[in-house]
Design brief:
The protein is of the alpha/beta class and 291 residues long. It contains nine helices and twelve strands. Strand 5 and strand 6 form a beta hairpin. The longest helix has 27 residues.
């Protein structure tokens, strides 16, 4: 099934805790796809597979009227166990049923003889490049579409043989997949592991970027940031997003917020800031093209 709507502009993660506030602000739209404060939504498919009843109907009312992407949590692309092809089949059914434009997953693993309930780092090795790329290709075959993989936050790098930037680039090339570029994760990792965030960003393959993520994080202590999605986006991350628009191109951008939800108006203000940055760089590109 073709996507009902392609994601554009600035989107928000659709969490069940937000359904009430969203309804108070007129979501889902009653007709068509409005020019609205939220341009698209993202959901984790695992949270909605086999969900029926009132919640299932509520999701359908959203996907019939708004653009959606899906961001997976538990496929464990880098894991040692066989791919969960039953889960992949369920994800494909959800994507097709709701006309979802894009599916993405984390470049990590989260299971080994059971679910680990966390996103664990894949070793930056040549063997891991081959292993993960093959699993991504198999996933794409089963889903019948290209997927995007996300650069993740991590707090240890066991068995490192190569830099993270080269690891990400080589997997994307070998798997022939797209990239979900998480701007906050670049900032968090650059502080925790002492690398240049701008240089990492500039090295990403612009032609592969499907969309961006931005989020807030928690300062555990000086020099240690924890990726939580529980706070507002900070200025260095906004600056890095603007650099991404300048060097890699304007793409749809998703604001992640998983808990500590502020009033919806505050989230919309962050979305407005994303659109302001997107418009500024789109206008600059048109100005340069006119010469």
């Amino acid at each position: 099934m073709s996507p009902r709507y392609a994601p554009i502009g600035a989107g928000l993660g659709l969490r069940r805790a937000l359904l009430g506030p969203l309804a108070e602000h007129g979501y889902p739209a009653t007709t068509g796809m409005p020019a609205a404060a939220i341009d698209f939504f993202e959901i984790a498919p695992e949270n909605w597979i086999n969900v029926g009843g009132a919640l299932g109907r509520q999701l359908r009312s959203y996907t019939e009227r708004h653009a959606f992407v899906c961001h997976g949590l538990s496929l464990s692309l880098g894991g040692p166990e066989p791919l969960d092809e039953t889960l992949i089949a369920k994800i494909r059914r959800l994507l097709d049923t709701h006309g979802v434009a894009l599916y993405s997953e984390h470049l990590s693993y989260c299971s080994d003889d059971g679910h680990l309930y966390d996103l664990m780092p894949v070793p930056f090795t040549r063997a891991a490049v081959d292993w993960v790329a093959a699993r991504i290709r198999r996933t794409q075959d089963l889903l019948g579409r290209r997927i995007a993989v996300e650069n993740v936050s991590y707090y240890a790098a066991p068995g490192r043989e190569m830099d993270e930037v080269d690891f990400v680039r080589e997997i994307i090339a070998a798997a022939d997949c797209d990239l979900l570029l998480d701007i906050n994760n670049i900032h968090v990792n650059s502080v925790n592991h002492g690398y240049d965030a701008a240089a990492f960003l500039d090295a990403m393959p612009a032609e592969r970027i499907a969309y961006y993520h931005v989020a807030g994080h928690y300062d555990e202590e000086p020099g240690l940031k924890v990726d939580t999605h529980g706070a507002a986006v900070i200025d260095p991350v906004w600056s890095l997003l603007e650099r991404a628009y300048t060097h890699l191109g304007v793409r749809p951008t998703l604001l992640e917020r998983d808990f500590n939800f502020p009033p919806l108006t505050e989230l919309v203000a962050e979305l407005d800031h994303i659109r302001d940055l997107q418009g500024r760089h789109a206008d600059l590109k048109r100005h340069i093209a006119r010469g």
